[in-house]
Write a structure and sequence with these properties.
The structure is a single chain. This protein is α/β, with parallel strands linked by helices. Helices cover 37% and strands 18% of the residues. The chain has one domain: 3-Layer(aba) Sandwich (Rossmann fold). The protein contains five helices and six strands; from the N terminus they run βααβαβαβαββ. A six-stranded mixed beta sheet has the order 3-2-4-1-5-6, with helices on both faces. Helix 2 packs across helix 3 and helix 4 crosses helix 5. The two termini are 23 Å apart. This is Phosphoglycerate mutase.
Length: 167
């Protein structure tokens, strides 16, 4: 299976390396994020993804609305790929790992050849750890992509495409 994984468009918080705090669910993407998302979407337009998932948080929804408009792909909200609760003491590392392991099991049980996923920094880092080695550590969570990057995972091989500089 091929995974196309990307982080939501840039927000005020991600641009300035700030914690989302009380805005973790309703932060919006910045206007300058739109052209970057459009370039990423143009790339995805030519890739087959049988199933497409997004976090239900506003910045991810805004991102996939742009991707849907350009690609014609439809994304399904999935609570398991929403922002992590570690920084708000809402879940442990083990709970995050279980939540995302369950997501992967469900996705792979559908036997799709490829999927697209729009999520957030730590959940993406956790997904990459799980897809690459089958578990995650706290150190893995520091390895998340920037907004505007697309990560492909196929047979435990991880590649990054950066659409911030022209793709």
């Amino acid at each position: 299976m091929i995974y196309y994984i990307f982080r939501h468009g840039e927000t005020y918080f991600s641009k300035n390396n700030l914690h989302y705090g009380e805005h973790y669910q309703d932060a919006e993407i910045l206007p300058e994020a739109v052209p970057v998302i459009e370039k990423l979407a143009e790339y995805l337009k030519n890739k087959i993804s049988e199933d497409n998932y997004t976090s239900p948080f506003k910045r991810a929804v805004q991102t996939v609305e742009i991707v849907e408009r350009i690609t014609g792909k439809k994304f399904i909200y999935n609570e398991r790929i929403k922002e992590e609760g570690l920084s708000r003491a809402e879940e442990s590392l083990e709970q995050l790992e279980k939540r995302l392991s369950d997501f992967i099991k469900d996705v792979e049980s559908k036997n799709a050849k490829s999927v697209a996923v729009c999520s957030h920094g730590w959940p993406i880092a956790a997904l990459l750890g799980l897809l690459n080695k089958g578990y995650i550590t706290k150190m893995d969570l520091a390895k998340y992509p920037e907004c505007g990057q697309l990560i492909t995972v196929e047979n435990k091989t991880i590649k990054t495409l950066d659409f911030n500089q022209g793709g």
